[in-house]
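hey so i finally got around to running the thing on that chain from the lab meeting. sorry it took forever, my laptop kept dying and i had to restart like 3 times. anyway pasting the input first so we r on the same page abt which one it is
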Amino acid sequence: MASTARGAPLPQLRSLVEDPHFQEILHRSRSLTQKVLLSIPDTHKSCIHTATLQLNSSENVKLETMASILGIPPAPGLRAISENFTLESSLRRMHEGLLLHRGLLSSVSPRLEVKTKVADLMDDIRDVAVQITKMLKMVQPEAAVQSTTAPLSIHLPGDYEVQVATHLTLVQLQSFGQDMVRVLRSLEQSDEEEEENDS
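ok and heres what got predicted. didnt touch it at all, straight out
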């Protein structure tokens, strides 16, 4: 039988995902991720003063080249859990992505005039990462999970570059967070499903 978590056949994984403790952490993770998503617009408004940098703009695609020039790495890709993309892989990528964005915000924060909302957002990202780590430990008890990301070397010569780097980080975090919510929601057991399983 195909393995979905390393060494764990599909039925074993299903029983893990259906475990009430796992579901509780999963629900908390999704709630905290949604909290991050809800705070991104206010954070953006508080620290981005360049009128052309809008959070939900089709123009953001044009800034992708700028991201590579500034040294902003792309977020890890997330997709639905399958035999080819395990729960462990998904949780690891979520954790890596959260650390990446927290590291990026930490790099730009000292250069921002208003830091409060960015600091609050970084705390929320840390809280989500803690929950993801708990799930990862349930899936793979021996899993080694890094608690910090490698130092990021972002090229920020002036205020405009700081603005663009912060903007791109928030845009990318928003997209990554939306992908996280989709994956986490797909793993949640609804009350109806639980009733069907009990009957």
